[in-house]
Write a structure and sequence with these properties.
Length: about 200
């Protein structure tokens, strides 16, 4: 098993941490790309909607009689040709129903984590969830050299308040981590407490 850098909550270097199962998974990049596409598609709610000529709040009375005027034939002023009329072929709400089976989601996450480990973008911090101030979290980032996008992966029972105001950072509980967040989130900073039970087995 590979080992990655580990630090205390104050940024002190600790002995390297042995990776738990699932961090060195090798697999199909096509699966990872598929998973990212699904998460991106589900992030767009598809709520854009334009009113048609039947929905606009305008009179439906015929503009003028059909024949004898010398002008073009017209119906009501709710037609798309008139200012204030309905939109022809406008956007309509779309239900985005892309899904991945559970096993494929887990496999894609493992592939993403394996790639992050290979790039040196995974760090483990002891007692990360016990940090109470944003300043302390920022000092930790400075000491471990984490720049740009950072994802703090926390245990479910702790608070996010110390991390959410750091620019370029994302805070997520381990149970909610997915391939999209892992692969595109920059440096992943894990709380070692997440894996304590696994280490004791």
């Amino acid at each position: 098993m590979s080992k990655v850098d580990a630090y205390s909550a104050k940024g002190t270097k600790l002995p390297a941490f042995t990776l738990p199962k699932g961090f060195e998974e090798k697999g199909s990049m096509n699966l990872l790309a598929q998973a990212i596409r699904v998460y991106e598609a589900r992030g767009h709610f598809g709520l854009a909607k334009a009113q048609t000529r039947a929905e606009v709040n305008r009179t439906k009375k015929k503009v003028y009689k059909q024949k004898g005027t010398g002008g073009a034939r017209h119906g009501s002023r709710s037609a798309p040709i008139y200012v204030g009329g309905g939109k022809a072929h406008g956007p309509r709400p779309v239900e985005r129903a892309l899904h991945l089976p559970e096993k494929m989601r887990q496999k894609a996450l493992k592939i993403a984590l394996g790639l992050k480990v290979a790039d040196g973008k995974v760090v483990f911090v002891s007692d990360l969830g016990k940090i109470k101030k944003t300043k302390e979290a920022q000092n930790l980032m400075d000491k471990i050299g984490a720049k740009g996008r950072v994802v703090f992966v926390l245990k479910g029972e702790v608070s996010k308040k110390s991390f959410i105001n750091i620019r370029g950072s994302q805070v997520i509980f381990y149970r909610d981590l997915n391939a999209y967040n892992a692969y595109l989130g920059g440096t992943l900073i894990f709380d070692k407490a997440i894996f304590e039970k696994e280490a004791k087995k």
